[in-house]
Amino acid sequence: MQPVPDPFDPPWHTAARWQEVNAALVHLRQRHRTALDRCRDLARRLERRLDGLGPLMDELCRATCPDCRTPCCATALVWFDFRDLLFLHLAELPLPASQPRYPHRRHCRFLSPGGCLLPRPRRPWLCTWYLCPPQTAILRLRNICLDAEMKAIKSLRQELEDEFIAVTHKRLDETGEIDETHPQIAQTNMDYSNAK
Questions:
Q1: Which residues contact 95 (CB under 8 A, 6 or more apart)?
Q2: pLDDT digits (tens, 9 = 90+) for 151-183
Q3: What angle do CA 31, 32, 36 make, to 5 degrees?
Q4: Does the pTM of the predicted model rise above 0.90?
Q5: Please, are residues 68 and 132 in contact by the beta-carbon 8 Å criterion?
């Protein structure tokens, strides 16, 4: 019997689980290659939006993070969720070797003295979405509101997941074949989504 996941552990936090989920996504991406064209288009749109936010977010980080006594990268429990992995796979971006803080790392494995080693689109969404109070204050002073852009990105992430699930489930229903990898991804993601 497998142990029940701790709701505070990120999904796929062991090397074996990380490899398993990524192998399953590669399998599904290859198996449904042509049917996933719209998903790949959504992933490219999402990548462009994240790239577009990059310069402003990097500027905010340069202005606030070096003097921060408790930087997020050193203290926050951040992980790649299902939508992050799905995006990386469908945008065909390089995959990280593991979750950012696991196994048992004190701080994010991608944190360097010069900041994050990952380009903005390859980071967990939470790393872009979260704005600390000093960053929010800078945006307010400069009369910049990112609410609409953040909402658009969140919507694209949801649409990408919905379309991926619709395509892979539809194809499964049409063929009548049971794909053992798909339920594992869905169930694992559901377990961690419900735990949040």
A1: 22, 85, 88, 89
A2: 999 999 999 999 999 998 875 555 555 455 555
A3: 150
A4: no
A5: yes
DSSP state of 123: S
Task: Answer yes or no: are the C-beta atoms of 98 and 75 closer than 8 Å.
Answer: no
Task: Please give the single-letter amino acid code of residue 12.
Answer: W
Cα dist from 163 to 39, 80, 152, whole Å: 6, 19, 16
Side-chain-facing half-sphere of 175: CA atoms under 13 Å: 11
User: How many other CB atoms sit within 10 Å of the CB of residue 160?
Assistant: 23
Query: Could you give the CA distance from residue 150 to residue 162 in angstroms, rounded to a whole number?
Result: 18
Alpha helix (H) residue ranges in the chain: 15-31, 37-64, 72-75, 82-90, 125-129, 133-141, 147-175, 181-195
Whether 163 contacts 39, CB under 8 Å: yes
Lowest mean pLDDT among 114-118, 126-130, 140-144: 114-118
